[in-house]
Amino acid sequence: MTQTILRIAVPSPLYRSFDYLPPASAAADTLQPGIRIRVPFGRRKTVGILIGLAQHSTLDPARLKPALEILDTEPVLSGDILAMTQWASAYYHHPIGDALATALPVLLRRGQAVQQAGAPGWRLTETGLQIEPDTLTRAPRQATVIQQLRAHPPGAPRTTLDVPAGVLRSLHDKGWIEPCTLEEAGEDAATVATTPHSLNPAQQSAVDAVTAGLKGFDAYLLEGVTGSGKTEVYLQIIDTVIGQGHQTLVLVPEIGLTPQLVKRFSARFAVPLAVLHSGLSDRERLAAWQQARSGKALIIIGTRSAIFTPLARPGLLVVDEEHDSSLKQQEGFRYSARDLAIWRARQLAVPVILGSATPSLESLFNVERQRYRHLVLPNRTGAASLPSYEILDIRKQALEHGLGRPLLKRIAHHLDHDGQVLLFLNRRGYAPTLVCHDCGWIAECPRCDARLTWHQREQQLRCHHCGTQRPVATSCPECQSSELRPLGQGTERVEQALVEHFPEVERLRIDRDTTRRKGELARHLEQAHSGKARILLGTQMLAKGHHFPKVTLVGILNADQGLFGTDFRSSERMAQLIVQVAGRAGRHDRAGHVAIQTYHPDHPLLQLLIRQGYPAFARAALAEREAARLPPCSHIALLRAEASRQSAPMTFLEQVRQHCEAAGGTGIELWGPVPATMERRAGRFRAQLLLQAARRGDLQQLLHGLVRELEQMKAARQVRWSVDVDPADMF
Ligand code: ADP
Ligand code: ZN
Ligand code: ZN
User: Fold this and answer.
1) Which atom of ligand 1 is nearest to 234's Cα?
2) 5-109: CATH topology
3) Residue 488: left if φ>0, alpha if ψ -120 to 50, beta else—which one?
4) 663-678 residue pLDDT tens
5) Which of 144, 236, 550, 618 has the CA that lies 20 to 30 A from 691?
6) How far apart are CA 186 and CA 126, in angstroms?
């Protein structure tokens, strides 16, 4: 008699699945790939995923253990998610058990039953239904909630409303809204709630191109300058997809930073919408996942990991801000949600749209190779025009807390003319570090090769890499001098300069330090949006996707970090950031102006960017990549290792290198190993080895053999190592 063997993926760091016998009670027809099974694993019990059945095991059948319990009657991982995750596990060289666990909501990973009570939400009461949102001009947040709930009579989940709890409480106190459980709610009618814009010709042809091809796979790169109406294009295509009864999955880099996007989607369509991001409770996440899986939610908006959301009736995938590096997971299972979206769309035979004002060189390369179709929105909508650029040379200039004279003059000018000013500096805190004026001592992190940032308000020195913090010293630990001074600028320090120069003007600083508490970011963004705060100052949190209609001047305090970064993508990132920040200006009827402070005014890429725009910059940058044979014109993987003993990572990676050389893989070049740019971080030493190949297949073949070899290697036990395929960051 042949025995059925269960091939089960169990969350573990091992690159393999495990064989078990079926539990005694299991009926054969329940054993479908994608179901969860509780199994004994070592000394504990855990939840694994069935990935296949076999007749034979490489293990002695007598040693196979029976699985304990079948948890599902039907697969929790649909065929397409299972296939995509298995492919990704192989491509990114990440253990299958762990990869599949990533694809599941936490509660399911722990073995909870799929059937669940509904998600908590809010709906309008009878009285609330009578309220005209337009009459609530003095309570704009209340008006938005009323507007959203009018579009969703059965109720909307707490997560899509995205206002501070206090706003909901006051509405509840007025008797206008009430809590509800969303599963009780019936289906909404699929109608358009707010009126769509009539499209301009470029938007129209983009919409037409995609809607003509809704029946099968095609990849589109929607390249539209900031404010060109990309979102409107998505919305109108989605309208057609909804009309066909199909679901759309929209991936965005960070939902916390773009609450407006979710609001726009939910106000436009009176259909159930699910939002998935890291700020949800486990229960909310599971509820959203179920709404997607059952087909109830017709629009699913989520961050990176939402790519694993099952869809009952898929019709379209959208990846917004496709250039954003946060779409790539940087630890553990290092997948790219953008690249998986392409894979998944192909498999589902649906179109996928990648949208950006500043597309990644990877995607532009794919357009060049005719793998993606290029849809271009060259102009801003309506009367808005693109901003003008100006470079401010700060060599030999006295800077006041990072602000040069010319920039201060321009700020004053725009404030005088009733403009709003946005200042960008990608560094929070008061100053990047503290230095002794007498002996040159610098405040360094004891655990990292990095300096401690001075936070003035808290009177603390903090490491932004490991979180170490200590009180600011009043005297130098080396020479006891009391002449300790800030070196460089952070947002906190620039703010101080603004207080001195423009004491009467209302300011707003937006960075991670001022938006730690829940709801704070939304409140700040609202103030920024209304124009009440006349000067906005912030880090890249301000750069992403917001509309500040009254901004007329954007000041970039220092463009040089990007020009001379150690990563080969530094200049690409810098260009994207400049264009994205600049895109916040002049979105309305008034022209915007962008002033960039730099010590390198003649830098060719910077010149190209501001004179000819992002597409010209991208062409030149791509030519440089081609010449240097860097991605996307080649394929790379990084092997990283870290340990508390300094020599261990290098010793290990040397052995890896020797192994690769001995394996004699064709077409592979090895670079390193070298210590990481910041060798010591949080007390651990780090090093890396770069593998490069002209052909993806060669690299994959080498890595496939390699990771299995590494599991056995003795030196590997002295370090923590990882493989990063198509790394987004080189350190
Ligand atoms: P993007 O996503 O490219 O930044 P949006 O879709 O957010 O652009 O559009 C920018 C602004 O222009 C929004 O306020 C939007 O409502 C408006 N808009 C979009 N399309 C049109 C159109 N065809 N006519 C008028 N206004 C439009
Ligand atoms: Zn000193
Ligand atoms: Zn540190």
Assistant:
1) 6
2) GIY-YIG endonuclease (3.40.1440)
3) left
4) 876 789 999 899 988 8
5) 618
6) 17
